[in-house]
Amino acid sequence: MKRQFKFWALALPLLLLTQSCSYIYDDCTNCSKYYSLNYRLDVVSNINVQLSDQLKADVASKTLNTLNGYFQGIMQPATTEARLGFYPADGEEPILFNRTVEGRSATVSLSIPADNYRHIAVIGQDDPSVSLVNMEKATTATLTQFQRDTVDNHTQAAFAGTLDMNVVGNADQSWVVNLYPADAGVAVVMRNNPKVSRVRAFLGGLATSFTPNDSTWHWDRSSLVRTVPVSVAGTDSTAYCAVCFPSHDKTAGAKGTATRADDGSLWHVDILVDMPNGTVTRTVLTIEKPLRAGDIRVIRVKVNDDGAISTTDSNVGASVTLDWKNGGEYNPEV
User: What element of type H or E holds 7?
Assistant: First the structure.
């Protein structure tokens, strides 16, 4: 009897352990195995070529060097954060990663389950005024700036890319994801006029958010983008610069923008000039040529003694209001 008891005392735990192992094995038969994934992120952009073409200047140009130095640091930063989303085709929960990448090309190593994915990669998320939201689905992931009447220019440009990926197990796979600009750059260059007290410039009629999945921009509200004054070294000129979302691509789609109703402009520049007598002169520069993502647009203007802004650019219209009073349509100081 004692021998039987001892036998069952030893056999029962072993039997339970065997059943437990069998249960765990059966439970994991459908578990996903993770596989290493190596791919490269490539930034597609060339700021210097665009600026040289815009300014029709050589490398010795002080304006070219100043603008190139300003936009390079924002639109092609040396180090930036990458947000990587892998969205299974069957609608399962996405797999999300944050990585720090350097340079215009970076190799990324990750481990994910074998599956069919819609992949979305976004870099340039060190800007506090622009955020990537609604990451639950590929179709809803959106880059959006602050929803305000007046916003700061983007301090780091965003680049985005998409790729459909069939990740298979036990196979070496290589991928390249091209990242294209979601932003554009604008510089309004003017010679300083000592007869005016202060100059402020704002960009209007531009998009306020961007969906990488289908590369579409959205106009959620009318906003003005505040430019940054940058002194052109070695000259008496100032460039009012901003990095921002692009304009509409054609007039027919320009519903809801902040452009004037009596012209065919796609976007505009509002310039407020404070005069010594306390009045403000407002000039609205209207631009019919679209500001596309990846563009660097340079607009040369002159500030006259009465504060009015004029330009010889045939693609830019100008409307001037002397002794302008803010009628409440926007508040550029907010």
Answer: helix 2-27
